[in-house]
Write a sequence for this structure.
């Protein structure tokens, strides 16, 4: 019999390189906000974009931590 263990590549990527995901998300949303404002949108887009970027940063940080806890507790080593 073969001892087959699933690879879970996405989870392993998040566990190993998860610290870079929240800042990349933050910068991406801020750059998109600046691009939208620069293209002629109202100035109200800037504070709304900053608020959305901060919220997504917190959500991504908690998601990475949650995945790390799940992988640590549930996946075989």
């Amino acid at each position: 019999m073969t001892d087959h263990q699933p690879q879970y590549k996405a989870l392993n990527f998040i566990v190993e390189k998860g610290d870079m995901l929240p800042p990349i998300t933050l910068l991406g949303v801020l750059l998109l906000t600046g691009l939208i404002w620069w293209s002629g949108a109202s100035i109200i887009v800037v504070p709304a974009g900053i608020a959305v970027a901060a919220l997504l940063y917190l959500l991504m940080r908690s998601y990475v931590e949650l995945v790390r806890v799940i992988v640590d507790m549930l996946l075989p080593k």
